Amino acid sequence: MVKKIILLGLGVALLATASFATGNKNNQVSITVDNLSEEQKDTLLFIYQEEKVARDVYIVLGEYYPNQNVYQNIQVSEQEHMDSAQELCETYGVDISNVDESEVGVFVVPVLQEVYDTLLAQGYQSELSGLMVGEYAELKDIVDLEEAEEGMPSDVIGVYEELKEDAYKHLAAFRKAIDAYNK
User: How many domains does the chain have?
Assistant: First the structure.
């Protein structure tokens, strides 16, 4: 029951992320490797920042719950995800000059600032809530990556597929930690 309440609360706060990341799919723009629509560039920035949300949440919750190694293990992978997403932004001319990766908890996409704040507030409620935040973040990441792939060039899709594969592994790690906590 608690899990459903937490997921519902997070779901309300995060509903906007899918609409921001995907926009209007009925107006797909024909693209080449050198030309992405502004909407697609916004999606690249969104995914880059969403990976930072996960990394930053795991950094903070890892410090708050030091006995849960899952955060430390996965935050390293999330940094690699950010690096991959950053490369895509650079390749396609997305301005990321105002992004400071060293500032934990600071985001240029306003809705992701809200997501971060909400996830952290939920995660601070209890150790179990923190693990469930990780589970939710990975589920949301998978959905957003799937939607973000639509209409993108093959190199972007390839990177997003790799990120999704890792997100499934992270999801399994959080679920394992939740199961261990509940025993």
Answer: 1
